[in-house]
Design goal:
Layout: H1 2-20, E1 45-48, E2 53-55, E3 63-69, H2 74-89, E4 95-101, H3 106-116, E5 122-124, H4 129-134, E6 141-145, E7 151-156, H5 164-171
Parallel strand pairs: 3-4, 4-5
Antiparallel strand pairs: 1-2, 1-5, 3-6, 6-7
Amino acid sequence: MHRKRLLYPIIALALLLGILSGCKGSRQEGAPQLRTIGQPAPDFVLQDTKGKTWHLSELKGKVVFVNFWATWCPPCRAEMPSMQELAQAIPPQGFQMLAILSNDKAEVADRLATSIGFTGPILLDPDNKAAKAYGITGVPETYIVDKEGILREVVIGGMHWNAPEARQMLAGYL
């Protein structure tokens, strides 16, 4: 009986630490670290859940917010509403948000997006080519690409994207 009383708090602590440290379950083993701030962002061509094809290189002239995420990741789900608020606050002619689904199912992602009101495109990366090109270590991870296609910011883990600090950071690139 004494062992059970000790086991439950240990399990709860382990779960809490896992949630607070982000969702590392999608780690790309052996992935090259190709993301380099100040260098061109790795290009990708991916389809979204609606069938539209997105080429990062075709978005030059806009600041691009590239977010790798998954529905099974609590920090990913927590930051999605603030991502939507941010996307609505910035004029679309100069900004594009792309949410790249990592190791997850499109239909589950679409249901979650609908339930929380996220309207941005959800891109599919079935072979993890984009994830490998960016060298992601887990989800969520966010990359800010400037209007010239240069990688400017890397954010590992969840963030409140509608916070003044996040908006100020992005305003510097708009």
